[in-house]
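Note to self: the last two entries modelled the partners one at a time, which told us nothing about the interface. This time every component goes in together.
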Amino acid sequence: MNNHPEAGYTRWALLLEFDGTGFVGWQRQENGPSIQTCLEEAGAAFFGGASVMTATSGRTDAGVHASGMVVQLDAPETRAVSAHQLRDGLNFHLKPHLIGVRMARLAPADWHARFSAIGRRYRYTILNRATRPILDAHRVWHVKHPLDDHVMREASRFLIGRHDFSSFRAASCQASGPVRTLDEMTITRSDDYIVIEVQARSFLHHQVRNFAGSLALVGRGKWSAAHLRDVLHARDRTQAGPTAPPEGLCLIRVDYPEKLF
Amino acid sequence: MNNHPEAGYTRWALLLEFDGTGFVGWQRQENGPSIQTCLEEAGAAFFGGASVMTATSGRTDAGVHASGMVVQLDAPETRAVSAHQLRDGLNFHLKPHLIGVRMARLAPADWHARFSAIGRRYRYTILNRATRPILDAHRVWHVKHPLDDHVMREASRFLIGRHDFSSFRAASCQASGPVRTLDEMTITRSDDYIVIEVQARSFLHHQVRNFAGSLALVGRGKWSAAHLRDVLHARDRTQAGPTAPPEGLCLIRVDYPEKLF
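The predicted structure of the combined assembly is written out below.
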């Protein structure tokens, strides 16, 4: 897909929310239901069987959630619809699933959900207490051992800025290089919840979950804050901590040069 | 149940969290699964078949949640257990359900979960946007029409203090009188979420949900803030707004003269 829809198609921008539990992730796959499949099936149903094409601002893995993913949907021009009609029509057909279109609008000219994006914001939530999550089941990473958020915050400062993040990059990462600029990382604690928020132009595969896994080692006292800096400088995935589970991760915002939603 | 357990029983205090979706409420009933039934069955399983008796700080209706309900559990002394063993044992047997014991401790002398309580705190959450809840499905009241939280806050001031709350009392309420003292009511908006928190020694049946239902009428502009005051003064349930649905309500804290958890 390029920056223009095919002839006879209109490009829409959608603000998407979904619960990733039970899905194989955003992308269409053989081995189970994906967000993309559900959305394209809802689109086809709404447009009377004509196929629609979608692309996302960034793929999410199985079990990862989104409250603010932005996707593009190229729809046939054979049926004229308003943004509200499209939003409500897609939501009607999405209803069996925990997937919803929060907003829809015509895409700006030359706009692509992925290539035009200039910022992504993720939230990673840890429930730090002895007993399992109940009201937040499947929405948080449950860590039983007490975590010191102060030392986690201290360690997080080493990650902010432009670095070679090879130590926090999945082997499966398809990006052309390991250098990224982490614009922001905040770690806040409220009762038993530790919330890590990160903002960057783009992220490597598993980067946020790998941050969370290593920061938890710092919070438990297994690593010093300075050791996290050494791990970063090693540029070696085997030096870093385990990948934190997907259920704690949520894509909360995607930014474009022009504010869309 | 009185302020002392029966001979041969030990009284425990439990801090309970549950997702009320699909339950008939706290109390044991004929027409479906209750929180109390699940907890007592878990207790019986843990104590080798011996029955346990429970009572709550305050009943919750079907669909209402709790993150901080306090209950008492009278367990046979035949098996000596520590607070941690009781907590973990009950959680093991509760596992099929979204019910969890966050903490357990021996009850203070002469303590009763309901009669000793001196404060209850509830949170009522409204999702105020056009499209249905996804990540918060079954946890919020979905109100599509835009609500003005400023005027809701203005109206809320009339409710604070000691009043005859007959206008906000369910017909089924079993309390001896309609006068209560509302110690605190805060209304805060964060993006699409409007959160109403209330604190009082005790509440009438449906009082918080009736507050939410009437405040939403003020927020929509159907009522003025002053009209809510008139409704309060009318002391007539038929004057007030509809009862807001249970899924937005959560019991978040119960206070006792001595801090328990």
